[in-house]
Amino acid sequence: MFQVRLDEKTVTTLVAEATTAPSMHNAQPWRFRFVAGERLLQLRADPDRAMPRSDPGNRALHIGCGAALFNLRVSAVHASLVPQTRLLPDPRDPLLLAAVRLAEPAEAPQEKDLWRLHPAIPQRRTSRHPFSERDIPEGVRGTLQEAAAREEAVLLFPGRWHVETLLDLVHDAESRDLLHPEVNEDVVRWTRLGSEADTAADGVPEYAFGPRKREGKAPVRDFSGRRPVADRGSTAFEHTPHLALLSTRGDGPTDWLRAGQALERVLLEGTLAGLSTSLTSHPLEDRELRLLARDPGSGVGHVQMVLRLGYGPKGPATPRRPVRDVLRIV
Description:
Layout: H1 8-18, E1 30-35, E2 40-45, H2 59-78, E3 82-87, E4 96-103, H3 120-123, H4 138-150, E5 154-156, H5 160-179, H6 185-189, E6 191-192, H7 195-199, E7 204-205, E8 212-215, E9 234-236, E10 242-248, H8 253-272, E11 276-280, H9 287-292, E12 302-310, H10 323-326, E13 327-329
Parallel strand pairs: 1-13, 6-7, 8-9
Antiparallel strand pairs: 1-2, 2-4, 3-4, 5-10, 10-12, 11-12
């Protein structure tokens, strides 16, 4: 019977693809531990990469790790393995976020629908560039909503009035940053300027900031703030941005991990559909503003991420830490 070899090269490939996932300010708050004798790959949080100012409860940390977990599942299926996943498997070890047993196809059925998402893993980008005003077809929206539902989350495309409310919340978050500059400590820590951007293995390098917004309503965070960035320029962004809200029924660590998996599934589906995407957690970093981001009609669920979708430049790839820095094999 055919058996997939789980040698160091295979495990390294799985982790390398997992870590292409997005995370808040590209902090990459994850570590992996492979227990060879048990064919078990553990995903752990890296508390040194937490953001005490903007993510004091580690919600965004869990979402980023959940996105990496989804990539791991896709990569495992592509390698003809069956990822048997348990979330938060040990209550005594809160940094252990997930345990993935890499089973053989003969042991359990594969999630074969994950296979087709594999080409999107290296193609997915966060784009901080203008998108066109072109509408997103209903069929594409439905596909993205189904992707979220498959991971026990809800993707809502808000109406015009709700979009304006969300944009107001982004503006409120920006205003609060000006009044309380200490909240920008995390942004300053995780942005890379000048020569540092050329050698960085994490964070948001200046070449990924995108142009400054001269006009338009797209919610694009300006990572440079008042710091000068050469050759950046400014341009007009879309006046009618296409936004989507990713929500979960609960709001605990398990829900955040599910939200991260749903987020990455939506992003990979969007990539295959030719969409460019960016994320904003800015209005969700303040508890009061986050509550106001809910659907005003239903008022249920907890918003975990605001997505901006559209047709435009994909944006550059951002750096990733070497696998040797995040993977331990025992």
